[in-house]
Amino acid sequence: MEVVILPDAEAVAALAARTVAAELRRAERPVLGLATGSSPLGIYAALRGIVEAGELSMDGVRGFALDEYVGLPVGHPESYAEVVRREAVVPLGMDPALVRVPDGAAEDIEAACADYERAIAEAGGVTVQILGIGGNGHIGFNEPTSSLASRTRIKTLAAATRQANARFFAEADGASVPTHCLTQGLGTILEAGALVLVAQGEHKAEAIRQAVEGPLSSRWPASALQLHRRATVIVDEEAASRLELADYYRDTVAAKPDWQRV
Q: What element of type H or E holds 119?
């Protein structure tokens, strides 16, 4: 994977957005993989600037969200269907009819997961997948011990993940975070054409260290990115603070010829 270390969160978001835009422009049938949580918000804001500048058109771009809570009512402000609509679809001018989110309200969860996998395949696969990372190393809601070959399925959320997300629900209506979710599996994520993972802050430093430099392990699900041929990890200085090879990553990026730069 390529690791890029930048001074701050604003620089991380700007480069990630340019990388995503470049991937979408190159694709004949562009499909954007949409992540939720706080990490990708800066990417969507920067992408909006690129779209408004006329440097990227989202006309006809399909979208697939990584995950969704199970059991939230339709329209709940913290359902990921609503978050994706609010933070990405509307600001970027995407066609809502072309954007799908796993159906966390489905009566037949197994069938809904199979249908989601089928829809991604019928769209030609995800062109570029945006990713954040949890403090325990999860991507999507693939919590520790998730199979590296997993597909879209129901998962139980780790206590640490529910605690990290509790602030959003407190702001919404005081309800507790759901205990289960639907998430694309690690195997599904690894089939995307390109992966762009961002992380900001010292609290993500250990997860980044394990994902980039640790062994391939289900204990740190994001380490699965080591198997992907086009994974880019863009982090700020704090998130990079535990990387043993930080200077090497800086030198590698600095040495890239201009034609390889986004």
A: helix 109-122
